[in-house]
Amino acid sequence: MVLLLLGGLLVLFICYDIIQTTLAASNSGPLTTRLAEGSWYLLLCLHRRYHLPRLLQAAGPWITMGLFLTWVLVLWLGWWLVFCGEAYAVVGSSTGEPAGWVERAYYVGYTLTTLGYGDLVPGKALWQMLSVVAAANGLLLFTLAVTYVLSIVSAVTQKKTLALSLHSMGGTPQAMLENTRGEGSYAALAEKAEQLSGMIISVGQQHLSFPILHYYHDTVQDRSLPLALARFHQALSVTYLCCPDVPASVRLKLGMAMYAMESYLNVLSGFVSPAETRPEIPTAALASMSECGRDEAGVRTCLSELDAQRYLRAYIEKDGWRWAQVWNLQ
């Protein structure tokens, strides 16, 4: 009876974790969260010590597969404990003798995968019904897992698309400003920001629904979303907060993009803790960012006072990059 109760609790727990992770449009289940965070923390420590960017690049797919394997093993263990709760829960189909421990594990395995070889069968009616429940449970697990993986692949593609779109404006915040300044109205920046605002919000919500997306790292800067968003936020903040003379129509579009960035940063608050100190703004980058009526000291103060900077710095560093790389300084 103890094994039956223990197994039942384990099955309920892993089912909750699976459903919370795959169907809830919020944080992942408790086991999934700890497994993913622990794996990433270990790999990130190795990267910081030995500089292993390829290791981080491989992390996302392998964490996903490790998660799926964990679900299968825990569910298998839970149902195995359930079917070990009584001597005649599983018997030989020809002999009627109770199955051993290993045979019960074998029975649970082919029941969960719905293979149904038939050399072992459930005993009384209760165990027959539980076998049906176990088979349905296994089918549900594999269906949800496949759907989850396909959704992640699609979201990773959109994540890279957003990063490339942002980087197309320039490889640094100052380059973004220079390339979109025009005659000083920054209309090109506002137009691009308006186009990308919806995608930023969408990708942010995908990270909320699938937190494992945070662990899909790209070694190429132009495809790195953390770097792209940090660079875009610097350029956007300078234009929106430090340039009082931009036209009202431009300011409206920039404000929409600022809202999109705030929405993304709200999602980040569940993934990273803000850095203890605000990041420094390199002096070399200030000269080309101080053409909006603010001097270099004014631009530095404007950016340094933003709370978002602490989250962006933490986001950059947790993805394996350094804040200096936002400005393309090594």
UniProtKB/TrEMBL annotation:
Which InterPro entries would you find in this protein's record? K_chnl_dom
**Where are its TM segments located?**
62-82, 125-150
Q: Which Gene3D superfamilies match?
A: 1.10.287.70
SUPFAM superfamilies, per the entry:
Voltage-gated potassium channels
> Record keywords: Transmembrane included?
yes
Q: Which Pfam families match?
A: Ion_trans_2
Question: Its domain of life?
Answer: Bacteria
Q: Which UniProt keywords apply?
A: Membrane, Transmembrane, Transmembrane helix
Q: Does the keyword Membrane apply?
A: yes
The chain positions of domain Potassium channel read: 74-153
Q: Can you say what this protein is called? A: Ion channel
